[in-house]
């Protein structure tokens, strides 16, 4: 499985001429012999021998492309609202996608529920955006970072993760509980102000 942010892998594959654009648009793709060889080479540089052997003995490897997207600046336009993956496609490395989508729907429901008239609908949708956008944006970026570390793609990043030199604190970022708002995210029912809520729930 390959992970690339914002369509990076798709670009790479199409430009390298390994797939036509139509083939590249498929989420799951068969891979050429050349690409398999490249994967095995990269695996040897990255993974323990046992795992490399599993990869080499897999008779029909495939690439499952994972896209995420930079956090959006807004998820509400007039009466149009984005929720779930449409609002924040994220990598699976944070194990959070469905939870994020469900919470979007719950908070949106709460905000709309408080609407006393249709004239207030815009305010309700803005409240939804104000509550959810800072939370999901941080979760998307955290998940991206985890993905880059876990797949060895962070080597050229400004601060790559080096397991041989990493401190205990550096390693803790890889734990699932380090996901921002893991212990709970703000909802519309919280009593305190929004800014206080974000601080309260920050991990
Ligand atoms: C292979 C895979 C494994 C995953 N595993 C996990 C996991 O283990 N844990 C986890 O938390 N998350 C996982 N996810 C992510 C999770 O499935 C999504 O985050 C979640 O389903 C998002 O919900 P959603 O309602 O936003 O989008 P979706 O579930 O994608 O629902 C969108 C719906 O809109 C429909 N649709 C699209 N376009 C149109 C249109 N033009 N008109 C009408 N309908 C349309 C689609 O058919 C679909 O039914 C996984 C995703 C994938 C692909």
Q: Could you characterize what this model shows?
A:
By secondary structure, this protein is mostly helical. The protein folds into two domains: 2-68, no CATH class; 76-201, no CATH class. The protein contains eight helices and five strands, in the order βααβααβββαααα. The chain has helices at 8-15, 21-24, 33-46, 49-56, 97-113, 121-150, 168-172, 194-201, and strands spanning 2-5, 28-30, 62-68, 76-77, 80-81. The strands form two sheets. Strands 1-3-2 form a three-stranded mixed sheet, with helices on both faces. A two-stranded antiparallel sheet has the order 4-5. Helix 5 runs antiparallel to helix 6 (121-150). It is elongated. It binds flavin-adenine dinucleotide. Flavin-adenine dinucleotide (FAD) is lined by residues 84-86, 92, 97-99, 101. Residues 84-86, 92, 97-99, 101 line the site of flavin-adenine dinucleotide.
Which features does this protein show?
disordered C terminus; 203 residues; mainly alpha; 2 domains; two-stranded antiparallel ribbon; FAD-binding domain-containing protein; 3-stranded mixed sheet; binds flavin-adenine dinucleotide; DHP_3-monooxygenase; elongated; 46% helix
Q: Hey, roughly how much beta strand do the residues contain?
A: 5-15%
The largest sheet is: 3 strands, mixed
Task: Estimate nothing, just give the exact number of structural domains.
Answer: 2
- SSE sequence, one letter per element: EHHEHHEEEHHHH
Number of strands: 5
Inertia-based shape: elongated
Provide mean pLDDT, rounded.
83
Q: Helical element count? A: 8
Q: Name the bound molecules.
A: flavin-adenine dinucleotide
Into which percent range does the helicity of residues fall? 40-55%
Strand order, biggest sheet? Answer: 1-3-2
The low-pLDDT segments are 191-203
Structural class of the helices, strands and pairings?
mainly alpha
Radius of gyration: 20 Å
Distance between the termini: 29 Å
């Amino acid at each position: 499985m390959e992970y690339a942010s914002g369509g990076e892998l798709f670009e790479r594959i199409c430009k390298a001429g390994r797939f036509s654009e139509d083939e590249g648009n498929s989420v799951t793709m068969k891979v050429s012999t050349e690409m398999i060889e490249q994967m095995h080479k990269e695996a040897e540089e990255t993974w323990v021998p046992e795992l490399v052997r599993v990869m080499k003995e897999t008779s029909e490897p495939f690439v499952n492309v994972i896209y995420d997207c930079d956090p959006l600046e807004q998820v509400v336009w007039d009466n149009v609202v984005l929720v779930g993956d449409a609002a924040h496609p994220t990598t699976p490395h944070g194990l959070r996608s469905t939870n994020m989508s469900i919470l979007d729907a719950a908070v949106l429901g709460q905000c709309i529920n408080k609407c006393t008239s249709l004239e207030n609908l815009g305010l309700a949708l803005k409240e939804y955006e104000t509550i959810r956008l800072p939370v999901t944006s941080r979760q998307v970026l955290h998940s991206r970072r985890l993905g880059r570390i876990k797949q060895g793609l962070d080597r050229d990043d400004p601060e790559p993760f080096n397991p041989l030199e990493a401190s205990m604190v550096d390693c803790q970022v890889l734990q699932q509980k380090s996901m921002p708002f893991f212990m709970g995210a703000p909802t519309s029912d919280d009593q305190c102000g929004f800014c206080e809520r974000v601080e309260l729930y920050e991990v």
